[in-house]
Amino acid sequence: MNEVRIDKWLWATRLFKTRTLAAEACKKGRVSINNLTVKPSRMLRAGEIIQIRKPPITFSFKAISLTERRMAAKSVPEYLENVTPKEQYEILEMNKISGFVDRARGLGRPTKKERRDLEQFMDDESDADFFDFGDDEA
Fold first, then answer.
1. What are the φ/ψ torsions at residue 114 (nearest 5 degrees)?
2. Peptide bond into 56 cis (omega under 30)
């Protein structure tokens, strides 16, 4: 097998849960090969670098060998190599640490924990005396 459709390969190597999700990601421009966005029908060759944009980071994988059949998770390393730069994982860590501050629009209401954290954060700022207006009688 010299070539395989990119959407089939993404699904077979367990990068996406369903082939439909893999195809949708390609259609939305989130999948690229060698920095060129691709359609789901694009044929993939061994040795090509695939970038998958899952905000806030971009994962990069090198296709070692090709398959159209979904495999067990244990055998995935035989088919792809993760070549994502460490800087991308640092961005992911920073995003996890910031948590509720960078809440994406449309995610709904904050959870109780997020609300409490936000209130504590806001109370901490309001308690600090940033200005001295001289209200105190000396």
1. -65, -40
2. yes
Alpha carbons 113 and 111: distance in angstroms, whole number: 5
Query: What phi, psi does 43 have (nearest 5°)?
Result: -85, 135
Residues 6+ positions from 133 with CB-CB distance below 8 Å: none
Q: Which two tokens stand for residue 9?
A: 């390969």
| More confident: 105 or 42 | 42
Report residue 118: phi and psi, to 5°: -65, -45
Which tokens go with 131?
């200005």
Closest by CA to 67, choosing from 59, 75, 57, is 75
Peptide bond before residue 77 is cis, with ω within 30 degrees of 0 = no
Question: Could you give the angle at the alpha carbon of 96 between the alpha carbons of 110 and 60, nearest 5°?
Answer: 125
Asked whether the beta carbons of 12 and 73 are under 8 A apart, the reply is no
pTM of the model: 0.67
